């Protein structure tokens, strides 16, 4: 197409010889800058989808544009595996994760930077430079001095690795693919090639290698130039802007605004002067309205929509005529795109009028692209093809609208992007808790809750050690973010039999992405709002937001699932975790690890290299029977009868009014009596023991005794039920 333009210019200047020279110049420019392939100019769709085909065009980016790239190098997928689960009666699960390393070319000319990056439409890198998925990242800006990437060189060999000089590209190393279906996602980049707006004429001049010089022209926010010719590269702009290509006074080819070099033709100029001809003539015609589009839509990149595609429309009358859609790989505001659509529509209707003007030989330098006015004929006219024959210049004319595109009030529509929240560091709590289903468990359960100190946190990888860090094992990744924080003041002790309506809890959560809600008593009875406070399990019925992530919790149920022993032990700064199934990772230690210290380290994207550690003692709460309750002493004729009520780690919900299931292989208790100068231990298989006269005499007739009752579970003993009785 550039060849045709240059040919027309050359012909108008120097006849057939000039046309030949123009064609040669056009071919030289086109051949030097774009491969001679049968391909149109750039389209928005080309910039949205990542490619990896050999010979794909790499656009030259100007200004700021969001564009996909071309994968120019990649490794095979790397497989890793970890074992997790085994809790809540479920089998252990071996999980496989995959990563890949690859390089993506993003611009055929030097760029300044890359800001945000999206993967399959989801934000991968935020404006602050933080990544939302784990990867190593390096950017090569397309300089002529850039060295080969060291990772690619280590795989391919230093002598076989291209530095891709003059090509801007990004390298992703060990990119974790779990969030993207274990495949390399389609990436789009917010590419900043030049600071500020881009002058369209200056851009075209650079694309031509300086063959064209830049005049005045509109500026746009950004542009992705590609195609098989210079004209193809800027064709979408020419269709929407008043641009022209003209020969300058010094013989250079100048691209600029349409009216840069306007020529006024007087009435006498529209006549033909020749032998025997005393009069002149000009011919004009008009196309039928039905052949002219009445509805024009322009698609563009809208910075107000995270550089996603925007649409602006211009309509004439009832828009019953033809519809036309133009795609511009340009960054425009909604108002500018609306103005371009309106100008394009005005241009289409102006071009219904065409004509031929036969002009005297003095206007032989009237070249294609010039804007002219005709005395006695209203409007502005653009010169198309010109011919010179028998001392007469014949110029093909097209009517064009006056002025330039205007910025028109327009709405960009609502963006579909996601919040760009920083990932933040990891918060981690691990606890051995009496949770899980009612299955006959044979191993302890550790529960890991994790969240971020900022709302953008997603997950962290977990490793576990039982021997003080000498050896470690991978235990998968965290579950979803938990609502967790710290206690702001100590929580006094209270009984577990009734609602605690006296004490309240004040907790601080790290950000507004976490929230606590109230529930009614029926929901409390169903187990709603269960939380860990220190080592005590509580439920809360009322949650009052205090602002800034602070909440006051009241209507408390204390010591849930046998943790009444921990009531009153939580001080200010103790952890608070809302316990929900989808926010807890479960680890099942071997039974032999009871008594060991479990140390968990979490490593998230926002954490330091050493990660974040938490630890707890493996105590076997999930396999521990709860302490007996209702311990009492009844004097009888045969001695002091001790009685109590057992509890079970199975069947926490009392559904039928009958006795709870045993939950152990058999019923056994250890009874410990102590007093001044004596201690007595006995076992019994029923929830009762008679402290008879002979035993009392052997113990020196104590005036009072301290009693501890422990249920002997299948794997772990309960905590003691204690009381002191006077004799």
3D structure, described in words:
With 727 residues, this protein is mostly beta strands. The strands form ten sheets. Strands 6-5-9-1-13-20-18-19 form an eight-stranded mixed beta sheet. Strand 5 (113-119) and strand 6 (122-125) form a beta hairpin. The relative contact order is 0.09.
Strand order of the largest sheet: 6-5-9-1-13-20-18-19
Q: What portion of residues belong to β-strands?
A: 35-45%
Taking the sheet with the most strands, its summary is: 8 strands, mixed
Q: How many strands appear in the DSSP assignment? A: 44
The proportion of residues forming helix, as a percent range, comes to 10-25%
In quaternary terms, these chains amount to single chain
On the 0 to 100 scale, the average pLDDT is 84
Low-pLDDT segments: 1-41, 272-280
Shape: elongated
Radius of gyration from the alpha-carbon trace, in angstroms: 41 Å
Number of helices, where a helix is a run of at least 4 consecutive DSSP H or I residues: 8
Distance between the termini: 112 Å
The computed structural class is: mainly beta
Outline the fold blueprint.
Layout lengths: L1 H32 L10 H5 L11 E9 L1 E5 L3 E8 L6 E16 L5 E7 L2 E4 L10 E5 L9 H7 L11 E9 L10 E6 L5 E2 H8 L4 E3 L4 E2 L1 E4 L4 H11 L2 E5 L5 E5 L4 E4 L16 E5 L6 E10 L5 E8 L6 E10 L2 H17 L2 E8 L10 E4 L2 E13 L2 E9 L25 E7 L13 E7 L7 E6 L7 E5 L6 E4 L17 E4 L12 H5 L4 E4 L2 E12 L2 E8 L17 E4 L5 E4 L9 E8 L7 E6 L11 E8 L2 E7 L23 E7 L2 E7 L3 E4 L1 H6 L5 E8 L9 E6 L1
Parallel strand pairs: 11-15, 16-22, 18-20
Antiparallel strand pairs: 1-9, 1-13, 2-4, 3-4, 4-8, 5-6, 5-9, 7-8, 10-12, 13-20, 14-15, 17-21, 18-19, 21-24, 22-23, 23-24, 25-26, 26-35, 27-28, 27-36, 29-30, 29-34, 30-33, 31-32, 31-34, 32-33, 36-37, 38-39, 39-42, 40-41, 40-43, 43-44
